[in-house]
Amino acid sequence: LSISVQMLCARLAVVGQVTLAEVQRENFPSHFRYVCWLVAEFSVIITDLPEVIGIGIAFNVLLGWPYYAGVLLSPFTTMIFLATQEAGGMRYLEGIVVFFIGVMSISLWIEMGLIGADAKQVVEGIVYGFAKSNGLDIFSILGVLGAVVMPHNLYI
């Protein structure tokens, strides 16, 4: 559902040259706009909760810290990313993200080598796994993709 709504908002922006917020301002009464704003704010909080909890779990697994310490530290990690973007620009921040993705990818391949996984079968599973899936698997794939669609991006 969220992918469909995001596609409609993208069409509205491309074809109509307006955002969802602008359309709501022009067509809805103020009390309804405030309700939409509160729903959007609530959605932001709900979609950010897994990231905050994930940081708590990550610090617990990596450093042995209690969960609450990682959760309380999560706003500071966000501020570090924002400060990095402000100081070095978007390209610098993108470089850092690409570096960490590379480290994770290399670590994954090293781990697969240590356990003796057949690299050919792994690659075939990734490539052909989507092609061999039945029609119902697309709903699972879209569900995962829809989970990453942030509802507050609809208003931008």
TrEMBL record:
Pfam families: Nramp. GO terms for biological process: iron ion transmembrane transport. One of its GO terms (molecular function) is cadmium ion transmembrane transporter activity. InterPro entries: NRAMP_fam (IPR001046). Keywords: Membrane, Transmembrane, Transmembrane helix, Transport. The chain crosses the membrane at residues 34-59, 65-84, 96-116, 136-155. This is Uncharacterized protein. It comes from Aplanochytrium stocchinoi.
